[in-house]
Amino acid sequence: MTNNRNRIFSLIVLIVFSFVIISSSFFIITHTNHECSGEDCSVCMELAECHKTLNTLGTAFIGILHLSVVMFVLSVIVRSFTKGQTDHTTLISLKVELLN
Predict the structure, then answer these.
(1) Cα dist. 48→8, 64, 65, 77, 100 in Å?
(2) Is the model's pTM score more than 0.85?
(3) Which of 14, 35, 77, 96 is a Cys-bridge partner for 91, taking CB atoms 3.0 to 4.6 Å apart?
């Protein structure tokens, strides 16, 4: 049950994250050649916010990607180390009968 909630939450976050990136990019593309009204141009302010959002999310994405790669490499190393440690022989694994 908890695993399904985590998947749904992850999917929602992915959809929102993608929507923000796509809508910011679309706004920048469609309003790049606007007629600026001067110092307090609302379109220029929105363009600056979209650039700031894309830069922030891009930096966060690179950080998450770097952390994911490091965690994957560490998990592979730990798994290979622990796999070698768990392959030990016991009397039961050798199927030795202990009869007195």
Answers:
(1) 32, 24, 26, 44, 84
(2) no
(3) 96
